[in-house]
Design brief:
By secondary structure, the protein is α/β, with parallel strands linked by helices. The protein has helices spanning 7-25, 39-49, 66-78, 89-101, 137-144, 163-175, and strands at 56-60, 82-86, 108-112, 125-130, 148-156, 179-184, 190-195. α2 (39-49) runs parallel beside α3. The longest helix has 19 residues, at 7-25. The protein binds S-adenosylmethionine (SAM).
Length: 196
Amino acid sequence: MFHKIPQAMQTQMRRLEQIDVRDRRDGTPRLKRLRQIPPQTGKFLALLAANAPKGQIVEIGASAGYSTLWLSLAAMDMGRKIVTFELLPEKAEMARETFKAAQVETVVELVEGDALDYLAKYQEIAFCFLDAEKKVYQACYDAVVPNMVSGGFLIADNAINHRDTLQPMIEQSLHDQSVDTMIAPIGKGLLICRKI
Ligand SMILES: C[S@@+](CC[C@H](N)C(=O)[O-])C[C@H]1O[C@@H](n2cnc3c(N)ncnc32)[C@H](O)[C@@H]1O
């Protein structure tokens, strides 16, 4: 996968990486910032997603589509598709432009809206990347984990840099008998749950 990232996708990855770095330095207000995962997290997600069992590949929180591009690599490798949710219209528009320019429109379905309004529709989730506002993590966990197929993954970002805020959900997942869970120090910290 990593040796054959299509040129159009590489161009979009570099573009978004530059905007993300600039956002963090120039005082862009939080809601306008892309708040992307770092490339290492993207690679890790792609590696895991490329081995996802049969079922849906879902992302909650697309922003401008950077993490979605990494997941697209895995989806293309397996001949599968992804659905990604983005709440804010201006971010959804940026993501749409990213997917068009990266030529992944046939791989990615972008749903503009609150993921919580749609998640019940997905009954066989093989892989879910959760990277939204921290206040919805618990509700997303509760909506996703019961509908994950055996061997499927839920990966939630910010498990270390927002550990205090996410602690109730992290505690729940560590005691949840339906998943094996750990926190990996990759990027901002990934909560990794594998459905038993
Ligand atoms: C941290 S950013 C996502 C970054 C993106 N995953 C990446 O690495 O490129 C969080 C995004 O989640 C979106 N979001 C927050 N709550 C949401 C919800 N309930 N449903 C869908 N998107 C949501 C926000 O608008 C924001 O763009």
